[in-house]
Specification:
- With about 160 residues, this protein is mainly beta.
- It is built from three helices and eight strands, in the order βαααβββββββ.
- A four-stranded antiparallel sheet has the order 1-8-4-5. Strands 2-3-7-6 form a four-stranded antiparallel sheet, with no helix packed on it.
- The longest helix has 8 residues.
Length: about 160
C-alpha cells in the first residue's frame, strides 16, 4: 500500500489537472515497467520497483503508474482537492483498465490520532473525448462543521 501525504493540508492543491498516459495499453505494473525502463533497470527493484523513486522527484513508480504517467512525469496538478465545498471533495483522473490496483480515498479530521481515517465512496465519470481515463471523485463522509480536514489517496497493488 502506498499513501502519499506530502503536507498537512492533504494532497496537491491545484486548480486543474492533465494526464497523458505514455504507457498506452499497459494494464499491469509489469507492463508499465517494461515500457518505461530498459536493460538492467527493468529488473532492478531500486530503479523500476513499485516503491522506487528513480527520478528523485519524491513520487514512486506506483503513484506514477496509478495516475497514468510515465516515469519522467510528475503528478503535480493531476489531483485536485476542492477546498471551500461542503463536503470537501477530491478529484483525479485514473487510467481505465488497470487490473492490479485498488484506489482508496480517505478523510480524517485529525492526523496521527486514533487512526480515524474514513474511506469514502468513489464515483466515476467518463471524460469527454477521452477513452483512456475516467474522472474519479470522492467526498468527505464526515458531516458537520470541521476545524480541519486531511485527505489521502491510498493505492494498493
Amino acid at each position: 500500500m502506498l499513501t502519499h501525504r506530502p503536507h498537512r493540508w492533504g494532497l496537491f492543491l491545484a486548480t486543474a489537472f492533465t494526464c497523458s498516459f505514455s504507457a498506452l495499453g499497459a494494464t499491469t505494473f509489469e507492463e508499465w515497467r517494461l515500457e518505461n525502463f530498459t536493460g538492467a533497470a527493468q529488473t532492478d527493484e531500486s530503479i523500476s520497483g513499485l516503491l522506487a523513486i528513480p527520478r528523485n522527484d519524491g513520487f514512486s513508480n506506483l503513484l506514477k503508474y496509478s495516475l497514468g504517467l510515465s516515469v519522467d512525469e510528475t503528478p503535480a496538478g493531476n489531483i485536485t482537492r476542492i477546498i471551500g465545498t461542503d463536503p470537501l471533495t477530491i478529484t483525479f483522473n485514473r487510467p481505465i483498465g488497470l487490473t492490479d490496483l485498488t484506489y482508496l480515498v480517505q478523510f480524517s479530521s485529525t492526523i496521527g490520532q486514533n487512526n480515524d481515517w474514513q474511506t469514502a465512496s468513489l464515483s466515476t465519470a467518463p471524460i469527454s473525448g477521452n477513452t483512456e481515463f475516467e474522472q474519479v471523485t470522492a467526498s468527505d463522509p464526515q458531516t458537520g462543521p470541521l476545524t480541519s480536514s486531511f485527505t489521502r489517496l491510498s493505492i494498493r497493488h
